[in-house]
Amino acid sequence: MIDVFPKYKAAVIHAAPVFMDKDKSVEKACGLIQEAAKKGASIAVFGEGFIPGYPLWSMVNPPYAIHELFLTLYRNACSIPGPEIDCIRSAAKKAGVFVSLGVNEKKKTSPGTLWAANLLIDPNGRIIAHHQKLVPTYAEKLVWSNGCSRGLSVSSTNLGSIGALICGENTNPLARFALLAQGEQIHLSSYPPAWPFKDVGAKDEYDPCRANEIRAAAHAFEGKVFNVVACSVCDELTIEKSALSDKARELIERTPKPASMVIGPAGNIISGPVTGDKEEILIADIDLEKSIIEKQAHDITGGYNRFDVFTLHLCRNPLDSLKITDGGTPEEPLDPSNEEPAGENIHASCESDMLREIR
Q1: Average pLDDT over every residue of 158-184
Q2: Boundaries of every domain in the chain
Q3: DSSP state of 306
Q4: Sequence-ordered list of residues with C-beta below 8 angstroms from that of 167, at least 6 positions apart, any chain
């Protein structure tokens, strides 16, 4: 946690990737990063799975019909570290901004398995946070595996202490509190371009715009933090490549679309919302000092809680498939997704009396 409370601009990238094409999606992302910097932003936040796109097709087609789509996604997923991520790192460094990016991640040690990941890259081009979605939601389980808990951490930066969760994780009060208890000041929420959970015209149709606002406002108000909500756009290319039938197209086209926005520490919308298929870079003014007065009423990680009554344990253990003992000496397995470039600190951690960590 920093002692100075900076003021700056945050950019929400409400845009579509070049669906299922990692090279073109990376190229587009690099351009959007530069554009956000020109608008005066200190951080640019992208939606869930932006590289190379959210697997919307898993929700609107039968499982037996999506094998080739999964193969295409796998081919266009990214290793971390890897050349595509290096391009994003270079773009962040060139623009001098932080970048939060949703990525479909793969590993050389586990071909055929994918993860929903979110990276935080600093203005020096370093990966300072690498989070994998802990539990894929609903039909996402056909595509993504359970993620590693190592990335459930907060990064101390000159913009404040930054944490991130992916889509439905923002519904999980334990995951949210784990970040708040580490001193989170700015929360980054990434979401997909659409989420057709129910049939067209169904009673109580799922409204992701309203759902995003409820979740974002709840976290912002409870934790007295700024919440930056970024959704991808559902463009025609996404629909064309995702829908294998007329019914699938109808589901995507007619399902309500999510909204990008920024919520302040009082739980109010301070920028946005923007929704629909029009691409936009949403800019919000962040002033971390505004959280202080709000915490006079409710500081759930401080004076407005009882840690002699409530305890939360966070187990940040790796999901390693193999541990090797060679000559009686245990060795940590090599995990390409968690390798650190020389001289770089991937994860910053904050100790807290209210959060016990089991490493």
Answers
A1: 97
A2: 7-295
A3: -
A4: 48, 116, 133, 137, 189, 190, 191, 192
pLDDT for 356 beyond 70:
no
353: pLDDT confidence band, cut at 50, 70 and 90? Answer: very low
Q: CA 246, CA 255: separation in Å to the nearest integer? A: 14
CB 241 within 8 A of CB 249: no
Helix (H), strand (E) counts: the chain: 9, 16
The answer to whether 81 and 341 are in contact (CB under 8 A) is yes
Give the pair of three-digit tokens for residue 274.
């923007």
List Cα–Cα distances, 54 to 10, 43, 140, 197, 241, in angstroms.
Answer: 23, 22, 9, 15, 11
Query: What mean pLDDT comes out for the span 69-84?
Result: 97
Closest to 89 in 3D by CA, of 100, 74, 77: 100
Residue 93, φ and ψ in degrees, nearest 5:
-65, -40
pLDDT, averaged across the chain: 90
- Residue 235: pLDDT above 70? yes
- Provide the 3-class DSSP secondary structure of residue 175: helix
Q: Mark 72-95 as b/e (b = at least 16 C-beta within 10 Å).
A: bbeebbbbbbbebbebbbebbbeb
Tokens of residue 98, six digits: 């932080």
User: 204 Cβ partners below 8 Å, 6+ apart?
Assistant: 198
Q: Which residue has the higher pLDDT, 348 or 221?
A: 221
Compute the radius of gyration of the chain from its Cα atoms. 20
d(CA 359, CA 354): 16
Question: What's the pLDDT score for residue 322?
Answer: 82
Closest CA to 52 of 36, 29, 33, 68: 29
The phi, psi pair for 160, rounded to 5°, reads 115, -175
CATH topology of domain 7-295: Nitrilase/N-carbamoyl-D-aminoacid amidohydrolase (3.60.110)
- The arithmetic mean of pLDDT across residues 251-280, rounded, is 94
The pTM for the full model equals 0.89
Q: What is the DSSP letter of 127?
A: E
Q: Higher-confidence residue: 2 or 48?
A: 48
